[in-house]
Amino acid sequence: YVLNLQSGTMETEDYVKIIKFFQPFYKRIYTGAEKIHAISISLKERAERLGVITEKIYVIPNGIDLEKFRSINNQKHSKMIITVANLKKVKGLDHLIKAASLVTAKYPDTEFIIAGEGEERKSLENLIKKIKLEEHVKLVGAIDHNKIPKLLNLGNIFVCPSLA
Question: Which of 67, 86, 137, 158 could form a disulfide with 112, with the two C-beta atoms 3.0–4.6 Å apart?
């Protein structure tokens, strides 16, 4: 079998507590694979830490259709920072929101757009209110995949503050 590694959540503190008991099984799954496809160097290194020989691991990052994400307009907002992510703890969006308070203190016309849904939405909304960033940080909810290129083209910067 071929093992495909897509997520770094196995390294997060909460996840490690949960799977500690299952670590030998993970090791067997990894070392028993004929080949391993990892989407990042860090996932390749995880496989190596679990005992997989390097020659069995191939790093092939996720691809994108560049034509869909080419610049489609010249009407970019001067200071807009975009994030598209599941609203999960592992995505580190609370760090982005805290950083937004520093950015907007220096550049008050900066806007942060966070697209996505998830279990952290309420706590992120509370954090935005707590640090008084309602004018600067907008949680816009889930965006249809076909509309993501248009959203990304509105901004100048894309941020992915993932913890994994």
Answer: 137
Q: Which residue shows structure tokens 């994030």? A: 83
Beta strands in 1-151 (DSSP E): 2-5, 35-38, 57-59, 80-84, 111-115, 137-141
| Cα 164 to the center of its chain, rounded Å | 8
At 138-160, the pLDDT tens digits run 999 999 988 998 888 888 899 99
Whose CA is closest to 162, among 59, 39, 78?
Answer: 39
The type of residue at 24 is P
**146 Cβ neighbours under 8 A, 6+ residues apart:** none
Structure tokens belonging to residue 135:
């004018």
Block residue for tokens 């028993």 = 32
Burial of 104 (C-beta count, 10 Å sphere; 0-12/13-18/19+): buried
pTM value is 0.73
Q: Mention every residue, 6+ apart, whose C-beta is less than 8 A from residue 70.
A: none
Structural contact between residues 94 and 163, judged by C-beta atoms closer than 8 angstroms: no
